[in-house]
Specification:
With about 240 residues, the protein is an alpha+beta fold. The chain folds into two domains: about 100 residues, no CATH class; about 120 residues, no CATH class. The chain is built from three helices and 19 strands. The strands form seven sheets. Strands 10-9-5-6-16-15 form a six-stranded antiparallel β-sheet, with no helix packed on it. It has a three-stranded antiparallel β-sheet with strand order 11-12-13, with no helix packed on it. The longest helix is centred in the C-terminal third of the chain and has 38 residues. The relative contact order is 0.20.
Length: about 240
């Protein structure tokens, strides 16, 4: 069988993986603080690696999936418990299986005044433990100081890690630190009365999805062409 079939097949598989990630990004375009995922590609050429891994056949493959942590647009809401992060950092929350991190700052208070996430109702925590407010009419400055009539009554902290790759996506806007990674203080600023939007560009991504589908269809057409050529070659061989 021609090596071109394998090249087209690898291309179609890679495009299908890219399409799955792109569709997931589109599905989360309206989610506060969502960070888009990307896929990187690797082509194997006629060198030692290509000869060993591909046995002499040129093909493409995805070399990995990575998260785009770039800042999303900020929308003004005026709500005191809506908090966005300008720059690097995450809010820290307590989950059933340990600490988690999020940039979704659309918080709420329970009856005890505990600051909770809107999704999952996870407790927001800081250096001194759970964060709680006497009421929602508080002021929060860029450094995370919680103020009532000018008096500091609490502190919100932002956390990060040595590298963005230290964070593993858990879903629902939550992240966990990979094994062996440790948290550290982040340099971002907290902005009250605002929410960070998804960093997905819906219009651009829709165009990308169309292009991915066209490329995928092209690979399928190429594979069919090779299949038809192979069938004709077999028929000629039978006649001979």
């Amino acid at each position: 069988m021609s090596s071109g079939v394998y090249s087209a097949l690898s291309g179609s598989v890679a495009k299908m993986q890219e399409l799955e990630i792109a569709v997931n990004n589109l599905a989360n375009v309206g989610n506060t603080g969502f960070k888009a995922s990307r896929v990187s590609f690797q082509s194997l050429f006629s060198d030692a690696v290509q000869n060993n891994e591909a046995q002499g056949t040129n093909f493409a493959k995805t070399s990995g999936r990575f998260v785009d942590f770039s800042q999303g647009d900020v929308q003004r809401t005026g709500r005191s418990l809506d908090l966005s992060i300008n720059g690097p950092g995450f809010f820290k929350v307590a989950g059933e299986d340990g600490f988690q991190y999020t940039r979704q700052g659309n918080f709420k208070l329970d009856q005890q005044g505990n600051l909770l996430t809107a999704v999952g109702e996870l407790q927001v925590v800081g250096e001194e433990g759970p964060v709680s407010f006497p009421h929602q009419n508080v002021d929060i400055n860029h450094q995370g100081q919680v103020l009532v009539e000018g008096m500091q009554i609490g502190q919100l902290n932002l956390y990060t890690a040595e590298n963005n790759d230290d964070f593993q996506e858990k879903g629902s806007g939550l992240w966990v630190l990979r094994e062996g990674a440790t948290e550290q203080a982040a340099s971002g600023e907290i902005v009250q009365g605002c929410l960070e939007q998804s960093n997905v560009n819906a219009m651009l991504l829709t165009t990308e999805v169309i292009e991915i589908k066209r490329a995928y269809a092209s690979f399928l057409k190429t594979m069919k062409t090779y299949s038809d050529m192979g069938e004709k070659a077999r028929q000629i061989g039978e006649l001979g």
